[in-house]
Amino acid sequence: MKKKCTKKIENVDLGRRKMLSITGAIVASTAIKAEGMNIENGLAFIEDKKIPIRHTQIVPSGAISHNNFTKKCTACQKCIEACPEKILRPSSKLTTLMIPEVSFEHGYCKPDCTRCSDVCQEGAIVPITKAEKSSIQIGHAVWIKKNCIATADGKECDVCARHCPAGAITMAKAENSVFMKIPMINTVHCIGCGACENSCPAQPFCAIYVEGHLIHNSI
Amino acid sequence: MNNNNNKGIDRRSFLKIFGGGAAITAAAMNGLDVNAAERGGNASVDNTKGKMTYRKNKSGKDVSILGYGCMRWPNIKDETGKKTIDQETVNKLVDYAIDHGVNYFDTAPAYGGSEHATGIALHRHPREKYMIATKLSNFDGGTKEQAIEMYHNSMKELQVDYFDFLLLHGIGMGGMNSFNKRFAENGVLDFLLEEKKAGRIRNLGFSYHGDIEVFNYLLAQNDKYKWDFVQIQLNYIDWDYANETNKMNTDASYLYGELTKRNIPAVIMEPLLGGRLANMPDHLATQLKQRQPENSIASWAFRFAGSLPNVITVLSGMTYMENLEDNVKTFSPLQPLTEDEKSLLSDIAKLYVNFPQIPCTACRYCMPCPYGIDIPTVFKHYNKCISESIVPAKNQDDNYRKARHEYLYGTDGSVPKLKTAKQCVSCGHCLPHCPQGIKIPNMMQRVLKYVADLKS
């Protein structure tokens, strides 16, 4: 029985089979690619921003430090309700359940807003003025080369630099590089507001994001 | 066997075809962009563990090239509003450092509670995991007994029965007179040499600031004292431009050369000039970023100091976890500077010395001021104003710029944070204490003139 089977296969036209499978693969992949560029009503398909993997979480300006924030926060949700930019949200992690978390998919921490520090009555976010806020560094921006439009796609882009309220990002060309201008962050002016992360058009992961600081520094 | 070979389509060619198809599909899904497959949610994973660079001291012990400077531990305000060292955070920082191979911890009795906090944090680790460097900070001279009491108190605070490294603190400040008074005439140096013989001091050295005569004298006496190491201030500004700040300061290239000639290992302090080499004006910062877009500005200064072969450790006063992480990354392992990079730093140094900041490293040795001026805070704020003044207005958001100006200059431009400079009566009490040789009263005048000019 087995032998018979083998004989049958021997007679198959190999060239035809190979061609079919390669063509099949190409047709299938082209279909997938077309779907990826799904153009609806003349607008390009935009994926939802994915949350970057932060080594250290961000706590809002006025929180002083992670220690202070986590010790005093009662998870009352007042700051979350007050935040006009929707960057504060209740944590879903078991260890920090319902404690506010900061992320910039929907907005960034506006330099002229101190709403969360105004409403907190527990001392987890102490009251600060706009002037004080301009000097509080809650984190610093980090550039991710592999995600950047300039380095990965070879297209010119300066969105992060244009949106940085503190003027901490300079666009310049890396030396000995064929790439376009890339963002160069002078951390000393960066307050970690997340305007760069929020505005970055790279998707689904942005090419510039904020790493939180355990203790807030003053710049 | 024969049977297998005669199959119309064998396993290998099937895989080849299928695999090729899969690759095409994968590429198409990603818009034919090969890089896209690697895109992800963060810049890099922490893979620095176990890669620290080590140097050997005179007796062949491994010293991590990154040394922990314990002068700048983070503070916390207690219930009464008083500032104390944040022990919980200190423990976290020390744990991270030891976990990543840092084994040199530098402190001193003069660092306001640092020995105590450092002792608590280190005592939680096995003694062979860390080496302690502390100093004899008998700045006011005094008797041999007082010095010995200070020495034993350091042992108590640090919870150890021997010191890996002990330094005569701040040699050169106050010239030969001060050295003779503190160490020679009262027999304190003899006591330290005996302790070394007894094995309670494993390495004896001194930290140097100020008058070069004392440095030269102590090195000339090397046959007698057999210095195991010397701590000097070294960075790419001080290498050639130390005397731009003060005619009394000596270029680090000379200090390092003298030590190397005598085979005395160097421990480096102020590799970042009190953090100022991480705080570069934009046009200089961009030049460094252009060479190494993914490395920090500070990493250049650390690589400069670490690239010198006779350096056993580079001290960094790391207050914040992000500084510690960045420095661990720089030294795990150390990438020595190329000749090309060295010449870039030398060009940067030439431009940086003209930048009109006050070269204060916030060591606070000048404090307390008899007239109540918080000298380091005034200078720090002044430096912030100078640094901010060169950020082009068009690069900043109007709202941010307004708030920032209010923070720096006050609503009426009176710069409230600088106003205590007015209280300076030029008594000169602070002058002999400044290791950087800053003419503090003159600088207070400069600050006042700056405020006056802002208003006009």
Please describe what this structure looks like.
- The complex is a heterodimer of chains A (219) and B (456).
- Mean pLDDT of chain A is 85; it is low at 1-10 and 29-37.
- In chain A, 31% of the residues lie in helices and 17% in strands.
- Chain A has a two-stranded antiparallel ribbon.
- Chain A folds into 2 domains: 2-44; 66-218, Alpha-Beta Plaits (2-Layer Sandwich), CATH 3.30.70.
- In chain A, a hairpin with a 2-residue loop joins strand 1 and strand 2.
- By secondary structure, chain A is α+β, with helices and mostly antiparallel strands.
- With 456 residues, chain B is α/β, with parallel strands linked by helices.
- Helix content of chain B is 43%, strand content 12%.
- Chain B is built from 18 helices and 12 strands.
- The longest helix of chain B is centred in the first third of the chain and has 19 residues, at 11-29.
- At the A-B interface, helix 1, helix 2, helix 6, strand 5 and helix 7 of A face helix 2, helix 3, helix 12, helix 14 and helix 17 of B.
List the helices and strands and how they pair.
The complex is a heterodimer of chains A (219) and B (456).
Chain A: H1 2-10, H2 14-36, E1 39-40, E2 43-44, H3 66-72, H4 78-82, E3 88-90, E4 100-102, H5 115-119, H6 130-133, E5 136-143, H7 149-153, H8 159-163, E6 169-172, E7 182-185, H9 195-199, E8 208-218
Antiparallel strand pairs in A: 1-2, 3-4, 5-8, 6-7
Chain B: H1 2-5, H2 11-29, E1 54-56, E2 62-64, E3 66-69, E4 75-77, E5 83-85, H3 87-99, E6 104-106, H4 114-123, E7 131-136, H5 144-158, E8 163-171, H6 175-184, H7 188-197, E9 201-208, H8 212-220, H9 222-225, E10 229-233, H10 238-241, H11 252-261, E11 266-269, H12 282-291, H13 297-306, E12 311-316, H14 321-330, H15 339-352, H16 375-389, H17 398-409, H18 440-455
Parallel strand pairs in B: 3-6, 3-12, 6-7, 7-8, 8-9, 9-10, 10-11, 11-12
Antiparallel strand pairs in B: 1-2, 4-5
